[in-house]
């Protein structure tokens, strides 16, 4: 006999713990993975359908989309460095930043097309102009921004068409900050609880993360004499990223939990250490002028920024997979409205 | 709802209400006209009355048959009679199955039938007031059975067993008034039909997957082997020729009712009142109110427990409600980043 029977003498053949729970008991599903922080408050009681998620989780491939979030941020901020270096006569910094922006955005476009279910139809993205779709706006933005970065890089490498190169560099610097921050809207404009709820601070976190990544690239590959702006950008970017991320988590309440558990926790802890350490090394490399110090700072900053994007990505997916994060905040909202 | 009625409803309709200014959230009395249609038929939808659902899954089968939806996994979940588990690219109707330790209204639990001779009872049919004659229907739910505690049902039977109830509910795409999937679709593959429903154009969809996490109900999903996203079309092809959707057509108990949304809302309100009068105080409507977070659902439900018990979100919000604020914050962040860039190049005064 594989199941239990309810008879007049009671339940026969029941195997404790094998009943599929519904209702309030089903919500107490706990996954203990990794070394997450112990919650300070007991889990909220809630009902669910056999503990199944309410939402369908994102189908995006982590390497493609989190990778794009990282490279897009790096490119956008690098365009700012490129324009600044171009204007202030720092040719090495300008070249690295221009090539970095063009390279990062090219790889990004590849990743975005690769993530599509029907890559051959990528051009359908430009079929409409639709401000309610951050992905549509992003496609238009990238179709303006990517050619500018490529033109700027090409003119710099060729050493010709200086006027076109200057114009493209300036244009890319105007669009760059939007490229670096709109990706936060891309994530927040979903029903994924831990992405949506962070919509106020997430663009600032991504702006800071993009700045520290671009600064890291410059620090790792530009002589110290020209890397002054990159060092300042590293410190400012790291401060913006880490400060606003803490603020975001504090304001999100329970929906900050997915950032503190499992794989996202590991990634975000690594991001914290790498970004803070990278910024400190960057500041130090300004005084000590040692090549190795600057390279270490650059590598730490770039990997810290990448770890942050992957951490935020996975935390959102985790929050969509657990019905708790969908049901409990909505229940609280209903109760608050009722009185 | 018969097919003749559908055609009639399309033909008549009267003056449609003017569309409201609410483009991203809030009540929208004329969703098709707001989407740009002129001369629109009434908005069509589903009212799924789960109190009469028997869990037969004819809707799931009919939907798959009509729409050529591929197999969605021959799995045995072991959790309940529900092996379909949830809506997705290859499941456009899903019958939820819930077993609870709670009696339904009108039930008479814990009554033994050992000493009851059915043949004797049959011989005396129609001869006493306690035994109605042939052709009589079951007593109305209002009449409490003899011996039952007045006004309520005892939760526990004499032998100490807790009574069970089975909840069955056929879930489907809600065809929201403010549909997040449609709002975020970057290609325009998702569109609003003249019936006020939301449909994917499969020849346009490039499988970006943005609609999947945007849906607050977890309805639409990507078909892996195909790359594109799929969901209920409310049988757009059938509606176009005045037929009702396959699931509603196949439903043997009329749990799935199809028709003009206004009419369904009236019918649903009457049904809730009827159930409340019969002592089923759990009965409530879900997704019916145009005041809710998605401006009301085109497919709404009568439920017998909280929505989350059925795997539905208790207070869904269309994510694009906050989109203007999101763009504002992103613009401020972009300006901050530009300022940060400038600050990086400004020399500190010595």
TrEMBL record, chain A:
It is found in: Cell membrane. Its main location: membrane. It is a multi-pass membrane protein. Residues 13-25 have a biased composition (Low complexity). The chain crosses the membrane at residues 65-84, 96-117, 137-156, 163-184, 204-225, 293-312. Pfam families: NrfD (PF03916). GO terms for cellular component: plasma membrane. Keywords: Cell membrane, Membrane, Transmembrane, Transmembrane helix. It comes from the Bacteria. The keyword Coiled coil does not apply. InterPro entries: Electron_transfer_protein, NrfD-like. Residues 1-44 are annotated as: Disordered. PANTHER family: PROTEIN NRFD. Belongs to the NrfD family. This is Polysulfide reductase. It comes from Streptomyces naganishii JCM 4654.
Automatic annotation (TrEMBL), chain B:
GO terms for molecular function: 4 iron, 4 sulfur cluster binding; metal ion binding. Residues 127-151 have a biased composition (Low complexity). It is found in: Cell envelope. GO terms for cellular component: cell envelope. Its cofactor is [4Fe-4S] cluster. This is Ferredoxin. [4Fe-4S] cluster 4 binds at residues 185, 205, 208, 211. [4Fe-4S] cluster 1 binds at residues 53, 56, 59, 251. [4Fe-4S] cluster 3 binds at residues 173, 176, 181, 215.
């Amino acid at each position: 006999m594989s199941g239990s029977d309810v008879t007049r003498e009671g339940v026969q053949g029941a195997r404790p713990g094998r009943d599929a729970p519904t209702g309030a008991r089903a919500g107490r599903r706990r996954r203990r993975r990794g070394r997450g922080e112990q919650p300070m408050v007991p889990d909220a009681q809630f009902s669910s359908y056999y503990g199944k998620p309410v939402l369908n989780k994102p189908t995006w491939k982590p390497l493609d989309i989190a990778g794009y979030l990282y490279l897009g941020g790096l490119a956008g901020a690098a365009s700012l460095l490129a324009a600044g270096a171009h204007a202030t006569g720092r040719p090495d910094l300008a070249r690295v930043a221009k090539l970095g922006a063009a390279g990062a955005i090219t790889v990004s476009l590849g990743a975005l097309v690769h993530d599509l279910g029907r890559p051959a139809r990528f051009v359908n993205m430009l079929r409409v102009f639709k401000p309610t779709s951050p992905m549509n706006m992003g496609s238009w933005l990238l179709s303006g921004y990517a050619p500018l970065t490529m033109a700027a890089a090409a003119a710099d490498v060729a050493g010709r068409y200086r006027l076109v190169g200057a114009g493209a560099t300036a244009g890319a610097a105007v669009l760059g900050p939007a490229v670096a921050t709109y990706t936060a809207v891309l994530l927040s404009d979903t029903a994924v609880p831990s992405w949506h709820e962070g919509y106020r601070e997430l663009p600032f976190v991504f702006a800071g993360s993009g700045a520290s990544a671009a600064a890291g690239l410059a620090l790792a590959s530009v002589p110290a004499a020209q890397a002054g702006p990159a060092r300042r950008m590293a410190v400012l970017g790291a401060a913006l990223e880490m400060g606003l991320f803490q603020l975001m988590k504090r304001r999100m309440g329970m929906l900050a939990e997915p950032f503190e558990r499992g794989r996202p926790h590991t990634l975000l802890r690594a991001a914290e250490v790498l970004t803070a350490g990278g910024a400190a090394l960057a500041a130090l490399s300004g005084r000590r002028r040692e090549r190795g110090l600057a390279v270490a700072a650059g590598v730490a900053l770039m990997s810290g920024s990448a770890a942050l994007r992957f951490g935020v990505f996975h935390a959102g997916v985790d929050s969509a997979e657990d019905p708790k994060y969908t049901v409990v905040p909505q229940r609280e909202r209903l109760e608050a409205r009722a009185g | 709802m018969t097919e003749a009625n559908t055609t009639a409803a399309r033909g008549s309709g009267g003056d449609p209400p003017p569309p409201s200014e609410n483009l991203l959230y809030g009540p929208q009395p004329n969703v098709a006209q707001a989407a740009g249609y002129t001369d629109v038929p009434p908005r069509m939808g589903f009212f799924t009355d789960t109190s009469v659902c028997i869990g037969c899954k004819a809707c799931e089968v009919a939907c798959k048959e009509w729409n050529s939806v591929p197999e969605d996994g021959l799995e045995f979940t072991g959790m309940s009679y529900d092996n379909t588990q949830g809506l997705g690219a290859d499941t456009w109707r899903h019958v939820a199955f819930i077993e609870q330790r709670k009696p339904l209204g009108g039930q008479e639990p814990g009554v033994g039938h050992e000493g009851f001779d059915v043949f004797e009872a049959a011989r005396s049919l129609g001869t006493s007031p306690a035994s109605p004659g042939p052709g009589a229907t079951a007593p109305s739910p209002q009449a409490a059975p003899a011996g039952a505690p007045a006004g309520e049902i005892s939760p526990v039977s004499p032998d100490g067993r807790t009574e069970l109830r089975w909840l069955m509910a056929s879930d489907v795409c809600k065809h929201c008034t403010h549909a997040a999937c449609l709002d975020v679709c970057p290609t325009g593959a998702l569109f609003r039909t003249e019936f006020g429903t939301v449909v994917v154009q499969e020849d346009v969809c490039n499988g970006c997957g943005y609609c999947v996490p945007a849906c607050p109900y977890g309805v639409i999903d990507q078909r892996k082997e195909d790359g594109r996203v799929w969901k209920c079309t409310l049988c757009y092809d059938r509606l176009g020729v005045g037929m009702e959707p396959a699931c509603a057509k196949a439903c043997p108990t009329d749990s799935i009712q199809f028709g003009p949304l206004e009419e369904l809302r009236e019918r649903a309100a009457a049904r809730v009142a009827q159930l409340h009068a019969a002592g089923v105080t759990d009965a409530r409507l879900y997704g019916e109110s145009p005041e809710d977070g998605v401006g009301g659902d085109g497919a709404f439900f009568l439920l017998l427990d909280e929505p989350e018990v059925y795997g539905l979100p208790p207070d869904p919000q269309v994510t694009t409600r906050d989109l203007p604020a999101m763009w504002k914050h992103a613009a401020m962040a972009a300006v901050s980043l530009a300022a940060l860039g400038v600050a990086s190049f400004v020399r500190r005064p010595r």
